[in-house]
Structures are given as C-alpha cells and as structure tokens.
Amino acid sequence: xxxxxxxxxxxxxxxxxxxxxxxxxxxxxxxxxxxxxxxxxxxxxxxxxxxxxxxxxxxxxxxxxxxxxxxxxxxxxxxxxxxxxxxxxxxxxxxxxxxxxxxxxxxxxxxxxxxxxxxxxxxxxxxxxxxxxxxxxxxxxxxxxxxxxxxxxxxxxxxxxxxxxxxxxxxxxxxxxxxxxxxxxxxxxxxxxxxxxxxxxxxxxxxxxxxxxxxxxxxxxxxxxxxxxxxxxxxxxxxxxxxxxxxxxxxxxxxxxxxxxxxxxxxxxxxxxxxxxxxxxxxxxxxxxxxxxxxxxxxxxxxxxxxxxxxxxxxxxxxxxxxxxxxxxxxxxxxxxxxxxxxxxxxxxxxxxxxxxxxxxxxxxxxxxxxxxxxxxxxx
Length: 380
Prior knowledge:
8 strands; Spore Coat Polysaccharide Biosynthesis Protein SpsA, Chain A; single chain; eight-stranded mixed sheet; alpha/beta
C-alpha cells in the first residue's frame, strides 16, 4: 500500500508540474494554433474598460491617464471605474476627471463581484476589458485583444501580465510567473486558457452572467464559465500589461490563501468542466488546476509513504531528495548565500509557501470563512 500511495502521489505531482507541459508541447505540434495574429476588423467594436477599485486614490489618476492614452478609437472607448465603498478620495478623483469617456459607478462596500455584476451589464461596449487599478496597460494592448473577437467562437482573450519589483530585481515569483504564462500560451493555442488574470482580459459583454455575490476569484470563474459553455478562451502575448509585486510577504501569503479558497469554491460553480467527456478543457482544468490544488496533500502522502519504505535503498535516495528540497526551502526563507544559491533556494521557498497557502485556503473554504471583499495589496 505504501508503494502504491508513493507512486500514485508522485505521478500526480509530476502530471501537474512536469508532464502536463510536455503534453501541451506535443499537442501544439499535432494540433497547432494559428501562427498569425488575426487581421484588424473592418470597424473596431465598442469597448468598455471596467476597473474595480477600493481605496485606490494613490494610483487611480495614473490609471485613468494610462487608459485614456491607449491606442483605440476615442469614440469607441469608455472607462468605467467601479468604486467599491472607497473612502480615501478615489471617487472624487474619478468624478472630477474632465474626459467624458470616464464614468464613475460608486456603491457601498460589497466586494469585487458586486462591482462586476453592477458595471458589466450597464457597460455600453460590445467588448468588456477588465483590469486592475494598479495595472499599467501598453498602448496597443486593446487592439491586440479585441481583434480576436472577429471569430464568433471566441468568448474571452487574456493578456500577458508582467510582474516587476522596483526594489529587487531577483524575486521568487518571477520564475514561477514565467512558467505560468508559458502554460497559458500553450493552452491558448488550443483555445482553452484555464482562468484569466484580473490584470488584463477581455470578454464579450453579451456572454456575461451575474456571479454569485460570494464569488472570490471572479476572473477565474468567468473564464471557466465561458469554457463550460463551449467558447474559446485565448491568450494574446502582444496584449501586454505590467503590475508591481509586493515586498510584504505576510499580505502576499494572505492573497494566495484567499485565491486558493476561491479556487476550491469554483469547483461548485463550474462542475461541468470536471467531466472527462468535455475533452481538452476538462483535461486542462484537471491537470493545470485541480491537481495543483491537491499538491499539498500529495506532497504529504509522498513523504509519509516514503518513510514507510525506507528499508529499500531506492526509497532512501528519494527520501534524501525530499529532505534536501525542504532544507533548500528553509535556506530560501533566510535569503543568504551566493546569488545562484539564493535564487534556487528562493524558488524552493516560494513553491513550499505557495502550497502551504493552498492548504490554508482549503481550510478557509471548508469553514466558509473567506469573504468575497478584497483588500488592496500594499506596493512600494
């Protein structure tokens, strides 16, 4: 039984982190996506850029200027700022802006889902672009996203979000984020990106249906719903946006745990994607997400089963490898040693803390203790 448990857990971990990307690479050769970007439409559709904001007075003015400078026909673009109970002057900054394309939708604090449920149906654009208040969008990003909607099968298009740290060039999330972006690009070739990123993505307004008020990770659920309905969800690397990461690891851990709780919640919101009969979208959902959420339990099973098998020489080697990895994670928490060692140890530390956050998020999900309202993350 210990041997079966060890190899079952190890294979499932390998599937979500190593084998799944190999399957995607193989599938890209067998069934490659379009090699050329779609041509610009004859007439650009109307677009509503919707931004949910809570106490973003420090950056909302810059966000408005960045949004109004986007390379998109001025008469086809509106910017909607959905203020979620802001008390720091955010509403005043938005309300005083002289450009008539800027609209404020303010309401008492109820969470980001309430902002989207209020603002998206009221938006005038055929295409709705979702972004965060602290995300800077490149000038050509909107056109890069919107041109894909000439294909009626496309329900949403995700942009490429670059994370940066203004105070430290080498930070742990960079390697993992590049890995995740690479997976999204491969999934996009198959028309099934599993989950959008709230920093920048676009969808057809007509396909939006109201989310349950308790929804925690709205961007993830919106993309999954579209896949569940049979629409394609694409990835557009030329639609570039950038966002600052944080030095506050305590708050960053809390953000990850919150997202993890929302991920487990999403299983009940899109049960259709759990069916193996749904083809590649279900395969991608299981491989990229569901197994990833099971990783903390799988890691524990692998370690416990390995302890029971220590009489055999092979399993002593695997135990040494596991102990060495966790020791490297501890070293990463100390951030000491040469640069190469720090970076390698930092990746191990990030991986372990990410899985601890998943476990915390699962506990919050079981207790139903994770609220839908979010708190802005402090930036440098």
